[in-house]
Structures are given as structure tokens and as C-alpha cells.
Amino acid sequence: MATSLTSRKVAAADAASVPPRRSRVDTTFYLFLIPSLVLFTLVITLPAVMGIFYSFTDSIGFGEFEFVGFINYIVMFSDPAILGSYAFTIGFSLVTVLVVNAAAFLLAIGLTSKIRAKTALRTVFVMPMVVSGIIIAFVFNFLFSNSLPRLGAALGSDLLSQSILANPDLAWTAIVFVTAWQAIPATMLIYIAGIVAIPGEVYEAASLDGASPARQLVSITLPLVAGYVLINMVLGFKNYLNAYDIIVGLTDGGPGTATRSVAMTIFSGFTGGDYAYQMANAVIFFLIAVALAMLQLRLTRGKVSV
Amino acid sequence: MLTSQSSAPSEPTRRAFLAGAGIAGAGLALSGCTAGPGTDEITFYQSKPEVIGYFSDLVERFSTDRPAVRVSHDSTSNLSGGFVRSSPPDLGCLNYNFEVARFVDRGALTDLSDLPAAQRINPDLQPLIELTANYPGRTSVLPYSLMMASVLYNREIFAEHDLDVPTTWPELIEVCDTLADAGITPIYSTFADPWTVGQGLFDYSVGGMVDVTDFFTRLRQQGTDVGPDSPVSFQKDFAEPVQRMLTLAAYSNDDATSRGYGDGNLAFAGGQAAMYLQGPWALTEIAKLDETVDVGAFPLPMTDSADDLRVRVNVDLALWIPEMSSQQDEARELLTYLMQPEVINAYNEFANGFGVTTDAPDVSNPTLQELQPFYDDAAFYLGATQLIPQSIPVHNYAQALVTGSDPDQILRTLDADWARLAFRS
Predict the structure, then answer these.
(1) Residue in chain A nearest B413 by alpha carbon
(2) Which of A136, A201, B143, B297 has its CA 20 to 30 A from that of B40?
(3) Searching chain A, which residue's CA lies closest to the CA of residue B86?
């Protein structure tokens, strides 16, 4: 929009001296697009199209293959391993997105109010963001497998004295915890940006009118960061659907298959010689991601620029 | 707008520079491609981490003998990726598992039956190799090293409590009870690593009671029709072994669910338990931690008869040459070099493996010597987890069994997975 506006202005200014021409965009702009267009096509679009193609075959990644029609898709929808991984991944993402946003919002409120050592505290809270996920997972794996059970035994709790990573019903809570621990800082930073962007006069006026801090939070802060809540929720959810590294480091999908995420299931197709079948799975997963992206676009249209 | 403003002289130089850079880059890329064919360089793929150094030395010795053939030793590339790009290694030396089985099934490996070395392979091993994968009319792989995995036991602890090596199931339970009563952990288990449950408790229990070769041969003939009513199925044939497996699992250390392979080696080397269900690869690790610990080995007894004793084996390394290799002669030359008795026997002695040729000597490792009679009688089987395709997460199922899942349900899932896989392949 900016370009067309400028060119129109330029055209208007030149109208007096030069006969009006149809406004043509300088080809240089297209040249700038070419590198990323070529790269994107070569490393994303083309492989994706090939992947969709292979999902209708019985290929194992190389050598001869035959077309099998929709068999991979049909079998997939009755495969408890795949359905189970979807159920786990979606449930895990929903819980995580709620936990992360609640915690991050509260932290952001705290870190934007008038407290001492605000900058130092912000630095501390942002630190988990810079550590790689797999390392965090290995550290917490040690804590969950060794430290926590010992603490549990000292407290005399039967439940806690066994590693929760080895408990098929509870292992997911550990994954939510560690994922949240890593994801909260980024979400918190977005909330801080949102809260800081609210003009101070609004609060001043509110306090002059005698509104309590609690009332200000509910009636001013919350409505004015609503757009950020939405962004954080949708983006976060989409991220957690791709959960991989933290689960690999914590449980590796276990105990049994209790915590196998969709991404892990798809990847197992490459190592396990089940290429075409997991490609079908990846296509379905891709469609879900596209649907979520559309939803996000629709929901956030116009709400971001508060 | 920007281009029109730029000064005339600077433009050609910039273009010339970019063009030059482009040509240079293309040149680099091309030279990278053309290095392969034309020269006598072959790629030798071998990635077993413990012996990469050993094979590097071997390859170097080969190169000094035959200066005409240059060998590059690859231990890191993605094997499937190589086949997909039509540039697989010229000679592979790999664990003979389902990854390699895929290459065999699709006819991607050459026939080696005309090589003199192929005539020396112990015929007892042939059924095992064909059970994993077979391309009609071809000898697609030559085994190189055989691993016999069984129960490792601490001879000192057994002697202290006057225990003999158990040869039947009741004797085994008696040993476990005696140890438990004396306050010693009978079996050290590492349930946090699914593969240790799969290759250990699960495979040993099944292999000790079920004729694995016969079971999988019949199961494959069954096709998609595998379920509660089929003559052969996991839920029918594996139910009893799995029950006994769970009985044994109860004799494990209390924190087994959160212990991994490394913890197991450490604990067993430290004398924290009397028995440990691991393969010979763990011996090296245990010796690193404590050289003095006196370790013995026996096959897990699962029935009332000592005649049923069998050891779980796997073809730890096997040699193969892809059809796509353009250096067949050189690859065969290196293969023949590696198969020479003095080379292959020295390797197996180094790696705690059993020989695969008819002229192989007995093992010298004092732990593994206890298993030699079983090798001589061909009293061995391939682990069930090695014969279930990788797309079925059988190790995870084995882990679920020992962490409290319903065994009937897990075995039903296995049947359903098997039938589903048969349907789409």
C-alpha cells in the first residue's frame, strides 16, 4: 500500500511536466523477491508437493514404489498409535497454552508495576528462553528421576517417591511443566510490551476517579491487552502442536506410548522405513496447521493494532 | 529508482563481482560433484560407535597394501539419505536390522554368493539372516560379527550365597527369592530406556519359551488375518512369556522405572545387584567402571527343562554392497580383505563377538565362554523385537508392560498393529 501511495504522489507531482504514464512498479523490487522465492520454492514448496505425492504410494524413501491410492489415509484414521498421538498432542497443547498464558500474564503485571530491581528481575525471568530445549529437558529429566523421588521419599509420599516420568498417567504433567518453564518468558515479553504500550494518562484518570488497582486491572489493562492475549494463545497453541525436543529429552514418548507427539510419530517414519505412511500423517497435520493459521488471521484481523 | 541514481562506473564492477562470485560458487559445487566417479575412491560405511577407531586402522592397513584403491571411511552420513540420492556407500558394514532389511527387500544390494568368503559362513546362521530379510536368489549380506546376549551375573555374589547358575524356571525363581531374602537386588532393570526392556526381559522371556523363527514365519503367512481367532497371534503365543516376564520384573530394583542404560552399567559394576539382562556390549562399559568385577553369563531359563535353554543373538555387523555402487570390484576387494580369517577373527575377539565363519575360533572372553556351548549347538534365536518392523513401537510396548499396563491389551494392540501393517504393505 505504501508503495502505490508514493508512486501515485510522484505521478501527481510529475503530471505537469511529463505526460501521465500507467504507474509501473520498478522491476528492481521483483529482483529483491527472487532469492527468497527461489529458496522457499526449493526447500519448502517443492519437498511439500513431493511429500504429498509420496503419501499416495508405498515408497520407503527410495527404490521402486507403487501407487496405493488412499490406503495410507484410510489406515491412518484407524491406527490407535496415530490417533493417540493426536489426542495427546492436542490435549497437551491446550493445557500448556492456558498454563503459559496465565503465568506469563501475572508475571508481566508484576514486572511492569513499580517494584524494586525491575530490570534485574526481568533478566532473571527471561533466562530460560536462551537455553536450548533439549538441554532443559535433560536437566529436568535428572531432577524428575532423581531429586524429586528422593524428596518424595523423605516426605513419605508414595506418589512422589516414584519418578513421575515413569507414570503413564502423570508423565504429561512433567512435559507441560517443562514446556511452560521454557515458553513463559517469550509470552511474558509480549504481554510486557502490550502493557507498557497502554498510555499512562488512562491510569492517571482512573486513579483520579478513585478506581482501585484491581479495578484498573480488570477494566483497563485486560481489555487493552486483549489482542495480545489472542496472539499469544493462537501462536502458542500452534507451537505446542509441534512439540518434539522437550518430549524426546524427558520421556522419549514413554512410558509405553503415553507421551508420543504427532511430530515424533511423523519423524519415526523416516527412521523406521515407513516414509509414505507418515507422509500421509504429515499431510493431515499440515491441513490442521493451515486451518489454525486461517483461524488466527480471522480472529486477529484489526485487533492487533489496539 | 535506486538503480537509476547509482553512478555509471560502479555498476559494471558490482555486476562483474557478483558474476565472478557466482561462477566461483558454481565451480566449487561442480568440483564437489565430480570427485566421486573416475577415481578409484570407495566409501566404506561403518557407524558402530565403539569400533570406529578400530575400523579406521583396518582401512588404513588395507590402503597401504593396495595403494591403487583409496578408501574413505564414513561413519556419520544418513544411510537412507544416501540411497535416496542414489549415492549409497560402496561397502556397508552395519548392524543387520530392519534398516538394512529394507535395502535387501527392495533388491538394492548385490548378490555376493560367488565370493569365496560366502562359502565360509556358518550355515547355522543362514536361517536367521533369511528370517530378517531375503531377496530371492541372492546372498545380499555376509554376516561379520554375532552378538550373544543373555543374563549377566555377578559371580562373587552368586558364590557368597552358594548359588548355582539356574537352568530351569523354578530354579531361577529360587535364586531370585534367596537373593531378595538376603537383601540383595536380584535383577537390575533400567525401564527408563525402552530398548533395554525390549532386548532384555521381553526378548529373553519370549525367546526362552517360543520358537521365534517358527512363530514369525507362520505369523507372516497369516497376512492381515491376525487377531484373537487366528491360529497364531501375539495375544495367544506371547501371553504366557509375558506373564513370566512380569513375574521376573518384580524382582527388580525399586527405582527401575527411572533408571537408564548408563545407570544400569554403573550399578551392576558397583555390585548393587546380582543379575543384569544385557548383551556383551555392556561388558566393555562395566569393565571401564570396575575391571575387577567378575561377570558370568547364562541364558534366561523360562521353562522346566534345561534342554530349552537358548541365547538371544543378533548379527551385530554384516557386509553388503549396493547395486548402485559404481566401484563394485574395489568394494569386493575390500570386503574380501575384511573377511580374511586373521582380520575377522581379530575383530570379533576385540569386540566380544562370536565368529560367523566355520573356521572361527572359540571366544576368549571369560564371561562369554559360558555361552560357547550354546553357540556350538546353534541353540540361539533372534529377538522378537528384531523381527517386528520398526513402525510398530514394540520397545515402548515392552516398557508399558513393565510400568503397569494391561498385558492383554498391549498384546492385542500388537496384533492390531501387525494386521494394519500387513494391510497397507
Answers:
(1) A80
(2) B143
(3) A62
Q: What is the pLDDT of residues B296-325, one digit of tens each?
A: 999 999 999 999 999 999 999 999 999 999
pLDDT at B187: 97
Contacts of A60 in chain B (CB under 8 A): 102, 106
Best residue in A60, A247, A261 to probe B by mutation, most B CBs within 10 Å? A60
Query: Can you give the pLDDT at residue A22?
Result: 60
According to DSSP, the residues that pair with B149 across neighbouring strands are B312
Q: Give the pLDDT confidence score for residue A161 in this predicted structure.
A: 81
Q: Quick one: closest CA in B to A26, which residue?
A: B1
Q: pLDDT at position B39, please?
A: 55
Q: Which amino acid, one-letter code, is at A221?
A: T
> Checking phi first, is residue A170 left (phi over 0); if not, alpha (psi -120 to 50) or beta?
alpha
Q: Cβ of A257 and B400 within 8 Å? A: yes
**Residue A82 with chain B: CB contacts under 8 Å:** none
pLDDT at B22 over 70: no
Quick one: which of A245, A79, A256 has its CA closest to B393? A256
**What's the whole-number mean pLDDT along residues B383-389?**
92
How far apart are the C-alpha atoms of B343 and B324, rounded to whole Å?
Answer: 27
pLDDT in tens, B113-157: 999 999 999 999 998 999 988 899 999 999 999 999 999 999 999
Which pLDDT value is given to residue A302? 59
CB-CB under 8 Å, B389 with A61: no
Here the cell at position B312 is 538371544
Answer yes or no: do A271 and B390 touch at CB < 8 A: yes
Please state, in angstroms and as integers, the Cα–Cα distance from residue B132 to each residue in B98, B103, B105, B140, B388, following that order: 7, 12, 10, 12, 9
Query: Is the CB of A20 inside 8 Å of chain B's CB atoms?
Result: no
Q: Which residue stretches of chain A have pLDDT < 70? A: 1-23, 302-306
Read off the C-alpha cell for B158: 552368586
Calpha distance B269→B266 (Å, rounded): 5
Residue B334 three-state SS: helix
pLDDT on residue A18: 54
> Which member of B80, B192, B413 has the closest CB to residue A62?
B80
Exposed (0-12), middle (13-18) or buried (19+): which is A121, by Cβ within 10 Å? middle
* Cβ-based contacts of A145 with chain B (< 8 Å): 192, 258-259
- Which architecture does CATH list for B41-147+314-372? 3-Layer(aba) Sandwich (3.40)
Assigned CATH topology for domain A76-300: MetI-like fold (1.10.3720)
Beta-carbon separation of A256 and B83 below 8 A: no
Q: Which helix (H) or strand (E) holds B188?
A: strand B185-188
Domain ranges for chain A, please list them.
76-300
Query: Which residue of chain A comes nearest to B104, CA vs CA?
Result: A63
Q: What is the pLDDT of residue B207?
A: 96
Instruction: Tell me the per-residue pLDDT of A100-132, one tens digit each, with 9 for 90 and over.
Output: 999 999 999 999 888 888 888 888 888 888 899
Confidence label for B356 from pLDDT (cuts 50, 70 and 90): very high
Q: Does the structure show a pLDDT above 60 at B3? A: no
Q: Which A-chain residues 197-216 have CB contacts (< 8 A) with chain B?
A: none
Report CA B343 to chain centroid distance, whole Å: 21
Q: Which residue of B has its CA nearest to A59?
A: B425
pLDDT, chain B, mean: 88
Residue with the larger pLDDT of the pair B80 and A285: A285
pLDDT at A12: 47
What is the topology classification, in CATH, of domain B149-313+382-424? D-Maltodextrin-Binding Protein; domain 2 (3.40.190)
Q: Which of A3, A9, A257, A279 to mutate to test the interface with B (most CBs of B within 10 A)?
A: A257
Cβ <8 Å between B420 and A260:
no
Question: Parallel, antiparallel, or unpaired: how do β-strands B41-46 and B91-94 relate?
Answer: parallel
